[in-house]
């Protein structure tokens, strides 16, 4: 009956019982407890495995204490205790979320997830054609998925990949061919709930997805092979006059890029004090006996048939006895 017989915090002998709910459109799990006969200084706390849960919420106007757990998992298995207290004493209630109770929650989440599955969509990707459905929740232990092509069960292989995330069920057809055309069906089973979704990958749907796949694949090849300045050049290089400056950067590209250097947007002529050396993917520019005339904005320009890129650096030459500009600014 509680700790105090009269004027005790709680409803009669304690507050109303625990409730468990799943928010529509969310993967979160809510645990709620409502209390009455409270005062302004009444304190409400949630504990999990005897440790206080600081992110729990309590609304003194409604008397509702709420604990919301995003993306419920087996790690949340355990005993939850709601405690309400003030100067009159304390009262509590316990929720044992283990065993059959936890299984029941996951089963219900699985049912909600299966019912939430959106109609199948077809999408061209860099690797092939993807067929997928969005769900509000997916748990691999309590939900099972099976894909069919022309009513024949599909198994993952060299060209067929199937998988899931917390909010996505997908089938990926790599290097698509005409033989991949036809009806595809996704079967989602969650306990007694079984749902089937189908789409037809043929005609214009197949042609559009294949065209998008080919476009993205071509773009990926361009991005992979185009000329790039990968790393190496600083934003600013400061050096004293009469010294030798060496700047090295790393480039990439297939075919091997053409390389040129610019100074203030004008081509650099490699004569006398200016030298360039290329060793594999490393490009080095050397300026001997630098002077104030060598100060300026330099760029290494690389180009091949797939594209071009410029890496830039500002060179600042200071005289003997002077401080570098960045030191003066400090």
UniProtKB/TrEMBL annotation:
What Pfam families would the database entry show? Answer: I-set (PF07679)
Q: Which keywords does this Swiss-Prot/TrEMBL entry list?
A: Immunoglobulin domain
Q: Where is this region: Disordered?
A: 1-36
* Domain Ig-like, first and last residues per copy: 227-316
Protein name as catalogued? Myomesin 3
Question: Coding gene?
Answer: MYOM3
